[in-house]
Amino acid sequence: MSFNIALSGIQAINEQLEAVSNNIANSSTYGFKSSRANFSAMYAGEQANGVSVGSLTQNIGTNGSVESTGRSLDAAIEGRGFFVTRDSQGTMSYSRVGIFAADNAGNLVDAAGRKVQGYGPAVNGTLGVMGDIKIPTGQIAAKASTGVKYVGNMSADWQVPTNTTFDATKPDSYNMVKQSVLYDSLGMQHTVSQYFVKTGSNAVTVHYGFDGAAPSATKALAFDAQGQLPAATNSGNLTLTPTNGAAPITFSIDYTGTTQFAGEATSTTNSTDGYASGNYVGVELAADGSVVARYSNEQKQTVGTIALATFGNEGALTATSDTSWQANAASGLALYGTPGAGLAGKLNTGSLEGSNVDITSELVGLMTSQRNYQANSKVITTENQMMQALMQAL
Q1: Facing residues of 140 across strands?
Q2: E-strand spans in 111-247?
Q3: pLDDT averaged over the chain?
Q4: For residue 214, what is the DSSP state?
Q5: CATH 2.60.98.20 in the chain, residues?
């Protein structure tokens, strides 16, 4: 009987050593969760018959340290949750390893080549359906300008020009000129010139010229005694008709925030909402889980939002590798959401979660297992000596 009990102890310790060795070997593996061998007694009726490893407990609930990588498609989850991926057979896997990339088909994939799951671009504030995240790797179309935002200071020190007949070719007929860039439906740039002419103590008239042509439209700006425009004032609708086949550009110029103070005339904002077409140059993750494609025209486009899964009993998940799990009846169904929503943690982009292995504890456990192994070996040796002595006595 003692032989069997000691033998079961050695076998159980071997299984424990496998768990400890695997923990130590993966102490530098991103997203790895340590496991622990749980011993249980074996009985034959009411008689103790040895020991076995009853189960392996995964320490999923404890997060590893966050390690900065600086890579735009790396992400660590701060809190609960798992990244969701789908393999070629359609099987869902869950992992804490946020190493992503775009494959040659434009899919966002993890380090194992599985397709990352997420929500489509939001429409009217509502996220799209959950599925594969596709990244458009071609061009982004041009957007025609619909408005120009101009904010500046029309100096109160200006004098009415000596040449009272405005002429864009004669600088003495206006006080200041500024150019703004517009884009047509084909993405070509056009210039709108704004000639500011002081016409009275609190009045400035703006003359508009398009693409170097003589100005034909005007707008009067009337300031109050405090040098402020009394209300949101814009130019109304202006129209520029390109000659390259693009659609006419109908736009407005908003002067809200423009002042008339003493001192130098300044321009603090001169921007438009249009842009030329651009080529895809890369993709990055935002802290809210948004997958953002970047283009050569300095535009960004949200193409999806990464989904996170949480479980009622995440410790019961079935491990399919050192860093991947699958759901089962004990873990419960996955609850999907976006980072930071519900029970799901937030994302720390440009970082990865390290292993949660405590090397010191594992080494102590390794030494304890060695002592236990030696003790069980000693039991077998002693039992053997007793049997030899008994046989000799007979």
Answers
A1: 278
A2: 115-119, 130-132, 139-140, 147-153, 176-183, 189-200, 203-210, 217-222, 238-240
A3: 86
A4: P
A5: 147-268
Q: How far apart are CA 346 and CA 342, in angstroms?
A: 10
pTM > 0.85: yes or no: no
Is residue 101 classed as helix, strand or coil in its secondary structure?
Answer: strand
299 contacts 278 by C-beta, under 8 angstroms: yes
> Closest by alpha carbon to 118, among 325, 337, 286, 288?
337
Q: Give the H/E segment covering residue 14.
A: helix 2-25
- Segment 162-193, tens digit of pLDDT: 998 999 999 999 999 999 999 999 999 999 99
Q: Is the pLDDT of residue 48 over 70?
A: no
Distance of CA 84 to the CA centre of its chain: 14
> How far apart are alpha carbons 116 and 306 in whole angstroms?
7
- Interacting residues of 186 by C-beta distance below 8 A, sequence separation 6+: 142, 242, 244, 245, 246
Coil, helix or strand at residue 162? coil
Rounded mean pLDDT, 275-289: 90
Could you give the maximum distance between any two Cα atoms of the chain, in Å?
Answer: 136
pLDDT of residue 213: 87
The answer as to CATH 3.40.50.10380 being correct for domain 147-268 is: no
